[in-house]
């Protein structure tokens, strides 16, 4: 990409809660230009016609993979905020990228700096505690549960526990209502709350003999995600292949 010209950005899901914020952030930044703002009914070819260099994918778990594949096939870098992409989708993106070695895709479970740090703190803490559980709390219009952030947090905690060869968490439950102990994500119980008035919140709870540790992050406003979106837009052109999480872009 020409480093002096503004980066031509296309936003997918442009009239959505996140998409409309992303449109505003891209328009406000001096080094990015909003070249395309696509909604559900708009053909993806609009990205190509507008000369988009980086697409920001903020639609729905059901449409994200096809959108990313279209972009990769057309040499467009992608910053993916849409959550609910699992191992299969990430493998499919990797396979597609193998055909286009110069293209970069960033899949960011959470763009907020505090959320990225809280995942890293949770990863650090995991090996020191017998028990770990996650409570994520979101607005009721969210399609996926658990949240992408909670799934990612559980994965890193699960991996850290396995690396430290910790015993299974203590839990004497033998009789329960369906769902009472949450979803099991890599051995970590994850509880999802959907509630009017909320935006995006998460508590990671750790416990061991005589003490607990709680790591909490709150996004009260979707503007909290925009510095991370713009960082991804600026960086992804020089990071070919698949990057998961903002961590390497933040030097973490
Ligand atoms: N990584 C992060 O930091 C964050 C990620 N997110 C994720 O971003 C995604 C969007 O969230 P949010 O903005 O709240 O959701 P919204 O429902 O507000 O916006 C989604 C937009 O995508 C459009 N859309 C839905 N389905 C399709 C489709 N099949 N093809 C094309 N466009 C489609 C919708 O169109 P229409 O208006 O017609 O329904 C809507 O405009 C979610 O997956 C969410 O989890 C959210 C916040 C932060
Ligand atoms: O849908 C949302 O709102 C959010 N989705 C992402 C997720 O699933 O983790 C990020 C943040 O929690 C907001």
UniProtKB/TrEMBL annotation:
Pathway: Amino-acid biosynthesis; L-lysine biosynthesis via DAP pathway; (S)-tetrahydrodipicolinate from L-aspartate: step 4/4. The keyword NADP applies. The active site is at 138 (proton donor/acceptor), 142 (proton donor). It is an enzyme of class 1 (oxidoreductase). NAD(+) binds at residues 13-18, 81-83, 108-111. One of its GO terms (molecular function) is 4-hydroxy-tetrahydrodipicolinate reductase. It is found in: Cytoplasm. Residues 7-111 form the Dihydrodipicolinate reductase N-terminal domain. It comes from the Bacteria. Residues 114-247 form the Dihydrodipicolinate reductase C-terminal domain. SUPFAM superfamilies: Glyceraldehyde-3-phosphate dehydrogenase-like, C-terminal domain, NAD(P)-binding Rossmann-fold domains. (S)-2,3,4,5-tetrahydrodipicolinate binds at residues 139, 148-149. InterPro entries: DapB_C (IPR022663), DapB_N (IPR000846), DapB_N_CS (IPR022664), DHDPR_bac (IPR023940), NAD(P)-bd_dom_sf (IPR036291). Keywords: Amino-acid biosynthesis, Cytoplasm, Diaminopimelate biosynthesis, Lysine biosynthesis, NAD, NADP, Oxidoreductase. NADP(+) binds at residue 40. Its EC number is 1.17.1.8. Pfam families: DapB_C, DapB_N. Belongs to the DapB family. Homotetramer. This is 4-hydroxy-tetrahydrodipicolinate reductase. It comes from Saccharopolyspora cebuensis.
